[in-house]
Structures are given as C-alpha cells and as structure tokens.
Amino acid sequence: MTYQSVVSYNLFKRCDYSYHQPTKVFKSRNEAAVMDIETQIKKLIDIAQTAPETVILAEDEAKVYLQASTMAVWAPRGRAVAVRCDPGRAHINYYGTLNLKTGVELVVAAATMHAAATTIHLHAILAGHPDVAILLLPNDLNGI
Fold it and tell me: 99 Cβ partners below 8 Å, 6+ apart?
C-alpha cells in the first residue's frame, strides 16, 4: 500500500492500524449452508474425539511457484542487489494431510492437480490407516 504522505502513514501507525488484504466473499456464497456444514463438522469432531479408534485428518493442497516475490532487500549502502528469479512458471503441487491427534503428516507431490492426483493422495491416506474410521476435514468450503 502506498500513502499519499508521511502524515497519513504516521497517523494510521499511531492509531495502531495495520494494513491487511481483505477477504474475498463470493456472490454465490450461502451463509446459512456454511453455518449448517460447520455445525455438522463440529458434531462429527466431537463424536470422533470420543472414539479413540477414529482418525481425524485435515487436508489441504497447494501449488508452489519457484519464483521470487521480493518486495525489498536489505543491503549495504551503495551496492546494487540482484535477486535471481526463475523466468518461467515452474511450480510443484502438493497434497497434504495432518493427523490432528498425533501430528503425523502425509504429503504427496504431483506434477498437476486433477482428479487422478487427488485419487492417489486419497489412496495413500487409506493405505496409511487401514481398517480404521477416518474423519477427513477439507481445506475449505468453496463449493457452498
């Protein structure tokens, strides 16, 4: 964020304000459905926590680009700083799962994110927890 003057920056800073990116809310988001799903998830977690054989897993996926996004760099005065960047759009995809009871992580790398890669990750989860009840919590509720 850029400020028109140092005065406005100092005023915000003195008033204990900080700059944040706003959260996006989509027009199609249904708040009642989100609250209903969250209530159901809380009930499932309560049930799963009382059942010692149930495994509670949190799942997320990420695409990591191999590019630098440097905003500023500290350097000695009078010296030019060069930050080498990958000129392409090289990236790697990860599917990750965290066991909320034990802290054990499962990470699967994938060249692309599609149904087949997701299926491989889900099979890895099932192979790691055979014959056990699993509560898998997704990373978000974008479909609601």
Answer: 55, 56, 57, 105, 106
Contact (Cβ atoms closer than 8 angstroms) between residue 86 and residue 66: yes
Q: Which amino acid is at 94?
A: Y
Q: Is the pTM of this model over 0.85?
A: no
Angle at alpha carbon of residue 79, lines to 74 and 85, rounded to 5°:
65
Residue 133 CB: number of other CB atoms within 10 A? 12
C-alpha Rg value of the chain to the nearest Å: 22
CA distance 124 to 96: 11
User: pLDDT of 63-109, one tens digit each?
Assistant: 888 776 666 667 777 777 777 776 777 888 999 999 988 999 999 99
**Number of other residues whose CB lies within 10 A of the CB of residue 121:** 20
Residue 110 near residue 117 (C-beta atoms within 8 A): yes
- Nearest-angstrom CA–CA distance, 56 and 45: 8
